[in-house]
Automatic annotation (TrEMBL):
It comes from the Eukaryota. SUPFAM superfamilies: S-adenosyl-L-methionine-dependent methyltransferases. Keywords: Methyltransferase, Transferase. GO terms for molecular function: S-adenosylmethionine-dependent methyltransferase activity. Belongs to the methyltransferase superfamily. Residues 246-275 are annotated as: Disordered. Gene3D superfamilies: Vaccinia Virus protein VP39 (3.40.50.150). CDD domains: AdoMet_MTases (cd02440). One of its GO terms (biological process) is methylation. Residues 109-211 form the Methyltransferase type domain. This is S-adenosyl-L-methionine-dependent methyltransferases superfamily protein isoform 3. It holds the Pfam family Methyltransf_11.
């Protein structure tokens, strides 16, 4: 969650709620906010905070600013080769992916892919063209080797702030599981996040969708998105993933957008109303 007084500078990389935001280009954005039906004390008990996730993934506990730096990820992946999915695994998010990327031939970009099996699961689900980028050369080389026999999967070392190798309008969808959050944990967070979002907008086709999974509060993420480009926004709520990587949430509940007032101020009231 980002500091309220200055939402763009060095955000606190933990929150009591997970937000999944699906953003549609050409004035439609879908924003998914993950909260359970229970009260807010239960939220704390039912979710892994980003800090706890970091403890599981890292050697020691670095400053949160390190999450925005390439050297940190190179070092991490050099020491930890086991696959890891931030926030949610594919089975939990598949209903939303199916909703906003309904055709398996559509071209998809996964930013900040890491060593996740999310993209592999997408291909196993029938998606035919999944391009993955990450700033870490260590993890990209490992994933290129791992998936050398899967032509549907491509792995490219790239900084999401500058994706100039891709032409404008190259992708039907961009999926982001925690990459924007990581950038917002680094130095020059506002500038870097704006550059990333402008590049996401550029590489998306008209009517393309940006699916953002984040721990940031809706009001703050909405402000950043609205600064960068003209998005039409929808918000979805999702509970934390279970031990098998799938959510216990009913599909219909997950795929129904939450009513969202301008500025995102209605999200908390909506979550309470669903109790």
């Amino acid at each position: 969650m980002i500091n309220i007084a200055n939402p763009y500078e060095t955000p606190r990389c933990s929150s009591d709620s997970l937000i999944i935001s699906t953003t549609l280009k050409s004035s439609e954005l879908t924003f998914c906010n993950s909260k359970p039906k229970s009260d807010y004390n239960a939220i704390n008990k039912s979710r892994l905070s980003l800090n706890r996730l970091a403890e599981r993934m890292t050697l020691g506990t670095p400053p949160t600013q390190a999450y925005g730096e390439p050297w940190y990820w190179d070092n991490r992946y050099a020491h930890e080769s086991a696959p890891f999915d931030w926030y949610q695994k594919y089975p939990a998010l598949a209903p939303l992916v199916h909703l906003y990327v309904p055709h398996r031939h559509q071209r998809i970009l996964v930013v900040g892919c890491g060593n996740s099996v999310f993209s592999e699961d997408m291909v196993n689900d029938g998606y035919e063209d999944v391009v993955n980028v990450d700033i870490s050369s260590v993890v990209i080389e490992a994933m290129q080797t791992k998936y050398s026999n899967r032509q549907q999967l491509k792995y490219i070392k790239m900084d999401v702030r500058d994706m100039s190798p891709f032409q404008a309008g190259s992708f039907d969808a961009v999926i982001d599981k925690g990459t924007l959050d990581s950038i917002l944990c680094g130095n020059n967070s506002r500038q870097n996040a704006t550059q990333m979002l402008e590049e996401v907008w550029r590489v998306l086709k008209d009517k393309g969708v940006y699916i953002l999974i984040t721990y940031g509060a809706p009001a703050y993420r909405l402000g950043l998105l609205k600064e960068s480009s003209i998005w039409s926004i929808k918000l979805h709520v999702i509970v934390k993933f279970g031990p098998e990587g799938s959510s216990e949430q009913p599909i219909r509940e997950l795929t129904n957008p939450v009513p969202l007032e301008e500025g995102g101020s209605s999200v908390e009231d909506e979550a309470k109303a669903k109790e």
